[in-house]
Amino acid sequence: MQVPAPFEYERATSVEQAIALRAKLGDEARFIAGGHSLLPMMKLRLANPEHLIDINDLEELFYIKEEAGEIRIGAMSRHRDLLDSELLYQHFPIFRDAEKLIADPVVRNRGTIGGSLCQADPAEDLSAVCATLGATCVIKSETGERVVDMKEFHVGPYETAVGDAEMLTEIRIPTASNGGSAYEKVERRAGDWAVVSSGASVWMDGDTITAGRVGLAAVGDNTTQLDGVAELLAGKTASEELYTQAGELAAASCSPQTDNRGTEAYKRHLAMELTRRSLRRAVARAQGQEA
Amino acid sequence: MQVNMNINGEAVSEDVEARTLLVHFIRDDVGLTGTHWGCDTSNCGTCVVLIDGEPVKSCTTLAAMASGHDITTVEGLEVDNVLDPVQEGFMQCHGLQCGFCTPGMMLTARALLNNNPNPSEEVIREAISGQICRCTGYSTIVRSIQWAAEHGTPVSVGN
Amino acid sequence: MTTTEPAPTEERPIGFGKLLRKEDPRLIRGMGNFVDDIQLKGMLHLAILRSPMAHAKIVSIDKSAAEAMEGVVAVVTGEDLAGHGLAWMPTLSNDVQAVLATDKVRFQHQEVAFVVATDRYIARDALEQIDVEYEWIDPVVDVRTAMNPDVPVIRTDLEGKTDNHVFDWETGDAAATQAVFDNADVVVKQEVIYPRSHPAPMETCGCVADLNRVSGQLNLWSTTQAPHAHRTVYALVAGLPEHKIRVIAPDIGGGFGNKVPIYPGYVCAIVASLLIGKPVKWMEDRTENLVTTGFARDYVMQGEIAATKEGKILAIRTDVLADHGAFNGVAAPVKYPAGFFGVFTGSYDIEAAYCSMKAVYTNKAPGGVAYACSFRITEAVYLVERMVDVLALELDMDSAELRLKNLIKEDQFPYETKTGWVYDSGNYEPALRKAMEMAGYDELRREQAEKRERGELMGIGLSFFTEAVGAGPRKDMDILGLGMADGCELRIHPTGKAVVRLSVKTQGQGHETTFAQIVAEEIGIPPEDIEVVHGDTDNTPFGLGTYGSRSTPVSGAAAALVTRKVRDKAQIIASGMLEVSVADLEWNKGSFSVKGDPSKSVTIQDIAMKAHGAGDLPEGIEGGLEAQICYNPENLTYPFGAYICVVDVDPGTAEVKVRRFIAVDDCGTQINPMIIEGQVHGGLADGVGMALMQMISFDEDGNCLSGSLMEYLIPTALETPDWETGHTVTPSPHHPIGAKGVGESATVGSPPAVVNAVVDALRPYGVKHADMPLTPSRVWEAMQGNHTPPI
Predict the structure, then answer these.
(1) Between chains, do C708 and B40 touch, taking CB under 8 Å as contact?
(2) Is this complex scored with an ipTM above 0.90?
């Protein structure tokens, strides 16, 4: 069986202490949350941190609450919590859509939203979900905290704005009425990473989309939030033609590559098809046509 | 480093390397070999144990991370010589062949039934979808869990 | 003089019928004993360094840093092994394979060196410290170009080798077949590919080797499906005397053929124990299992069928290109280099058939017959069943109707095929009709027509298969010179309890239950009173092991016959006890009674006590009640079945959902229907897996792209439907209890049903064929009219 290289382990008792430890140990240290992405990489010796700081005891990071016109999600919220949360579902059904298809139920018992966002795998789903919802991330350091939007947060594949002496502590999503959201994903098998995923969120005034966003996963860099599609949707009347236009734009805006999951052409087709589907469902939800 | 945990109701304390995986701790240090490992990458679920009642893949969990928690392994399912209904169900419905994935499957089933005593077939299939069985094709595992649901007694294990 | 005998019930039969498994009480308690569970005093751990490249010269190996590590006991290279004459070992196909590479590496992840350490973590760490310098050689990855004159020769170790040719093989009558094709109304042709797959049992391969340097005794706990055959091979490889080798196969976490070959790791562990004098454990990780151990399939098949315009199939022809990897490690009877692919004529009564085949070396892992394939019958059945559907499409004929028109008729059995196989028994049409009835075939076709009108994609796929299992008659079949017969030994203890010892070994098939039932059926002792001993060469008679669905056809026959032998002796003892002649006794499953006077009877338990007790026995009869035999099957058994798969394909995303799967199997006499159903279920999941997702793939440099269960996808409970199974019973005429093997039937029969269903669903797109695995992307490409062979 594969085993990781030796390291020192420390269990954090508070966010402040965890950040202080990280600041002291520098880039030789990593936080470990659920561990289901980090430990396999360590077993393959692709990641060899000298210190692991276990943040699973940080009760202060386990929450999903409504506050100040936002849904606020503690970074240690497990996938299962996001899936089960009625509050989250009520405001953003896109989370439940996505979480049903992230890894498998047992992995979802351990994996966290903070871990997923910080891993920043190009096929990871929650980055697209959060970007689609216009989420912001709270990043804490010893000297204070900063709040960044998803564009700033998500620097590139496996790379985020969180520095060596910092910790992602919270995800904030602004709430607004008359909104709807949905997530569509094609995978080769349950539990597989996405071939392509598409998330959509819309805010409606009658039949008019006042604002909308679409984000894709697994089709190249900088697709978690497609500005062109947002521009297209703003102020338009919802229609099948519009979803198709948005889908075509989404397909043109991504840069998928052929691999075992699928050919470039197929992935581009999916970007189109899944964008249509996610928008259609998001609009239906905004209009109260789907529970 | 010293790790302390409660396994199947018994306090266990061992001095191990920080990198010791929970599955190795349970198998090699504690000597409970009913928990198996199958894939290294948390894809197969053969190594599932319950941590504080929740199924977790122990091949991608450090023993250190489980320190201070309650662990249930397959050896803890039978209480006072009485089989868990899940164990009985797997025997009655031919829910196992080689028996390698079975401990993990049964523990996930136990956790499911603790939360949902009457799951539908769809819910059962979803619950075990992170675990691979190469022998049964799953139908008899589903039937085994349904059998346990029908014959379930008030449970304590993993709850 | 009576002993209370428990009354047989449906739930607790004495003999055949549904019986809960005797294996289960330990396994559901976590009290199984698998190889990695074994801990011996002073045991060391072995880890293997593997090549990062598919084809490269080994320039140098520096192991000094690894050797200097605390806890490292030894670091061994191919050069070290060569010093002991152990660098190479024979394969099961009379080729040789490197234990550790000496000259060059020939596939990615090939074994290059091993470390033995006090702890498995340290052994892994030490691998990082071995420095190997490689010199790149262009790899041969594409099977279609492996015989081109300009490609590198892989097997430079074989003297005089100038190309990558392994063997040419043919069967059938080329000229007669050509004549039929020349005059046929209709000829269809299609390239059909069965991609490389891997059995991936949940337990990887491994062993614990404990060689006592003083006594010379080697105890080897090993993940082996064939302990006796392995013992003999170790004796030949390592020069150890066979009586000093004990191979123990404890509980095995699934085999499916993966645990038939002998892998370098086993030999390394034995050598390490020999050199160091301590027990050594080696267990593969999942990557090692997927990328180095026995792969399966990898056939590129050109299929052709000649038929009348009314749909009578006249001839079948195929030309096959077979990828055997870097070493020919196929586990098949020696005279059958292509396994039993010769049954590619399927279940149809035809006039002529011909197959030509070329096997080649490539820079990929060795193997070839290792995944519930009944020695290449998976490939044969897939070819013919796919081709029949190609013909149905060409003729615009219903695929069930076409099959019904061509199936071999009941009165034609025993049926000799045009490639020389004698099908022992069959009654095909009722099996297919039963499957169609269970499926509601006509209603499904109506539903499909309606859905097509609406643009929805629904597919119905059939397959009808005949297997040839139970290798085999020793006049034709041997592996490395070992005849494929199996021994069995039965002892009845004085109190009427029994122990039966088998040469075969369960990996989940339930031998401890079914073999007790076979003995019970023949002698009337309840199965719970019969201990089944297997998987230990010191305690069981010789035989070739469990693979190719051979346990029931060969060893099951041995168990029945050895029990009859014991019963015959019991009858003589009974005649003495009842003071009548042997001919005046009748057998009532558990007791002998005097004909015409049932009150005068003795039970088998009474007889057992008498056999071991005081007082004289009939003249010429020795004390005790036991026997041993070695069974040589006169023919293979030919189980068959009819499968129907129903799929829905999402027209927008091309995702395939298997909605229903109906399987009607006929494996002759059923010993335990519950276990048979379980065997079928597992194979059906294999079929869905291979048809839709499982494939071992490579990039152009020969890097394996399927090295974890993240990339080598195996179906979960969400991709598999609730299987609908049924059966018919057509006993084998030559098997003592009429049983046929069933362990691999569904793995053989189900892939074509799934693929046929998907192709059927795509008919509105003009799709005639699409190769496995039918991932969403590959289905979508087919819908666009793109031909995308997977290799």
Answers:
(1) yes
(2) yes
